[in-house]
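Figure S7 source data.
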Amino acid sequence: MCIFCKIIQGEMPTKKVFENDKIIAFHDINPQAKVHILVVPKIHFINVDDMRQEHVEYLTECFVQIPQIAKRAGIKNGYRLIINNGEDAGQLVQHLHIHLMGGEQLKIC
Ligand code: 5GP
Ligand code: ZN
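Tokens for the predicted guanosine-5'-monophosphate complex:
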């Protein structure tokens, strides 16, 4: 089982900020911004290349909930969303996740 599936199953401790039947969101263990949250669908697929129709509603739910997750985390002036998709993008965890970063002025990349 992958590390994010273990978090979803409650088998790994994490600083959870939101959860419903389709997604979970928790603080990144190695934050790269003042607020750095990972928003994760509760169904295992590796990345966009691996996405099937049954995954779409889980990914959609991530985007539906992100504005509220950001607001509750104290993000006020915008945020950055990143999906590292595959090896060259630096994807380390092989379970699709969206990085939600903000709470400060971010460097343009
Ligand atoms: P990726 O490079 O795959 O897009 O990002 C994976 C992210 O997951 C990294 O930012 C890393 O710090 C984070 N991460 C890896 N393992 C854990 C963990 O066990 N708990 C939490 N909260 N974050 C993790
Ligand atoms: Zn997984």
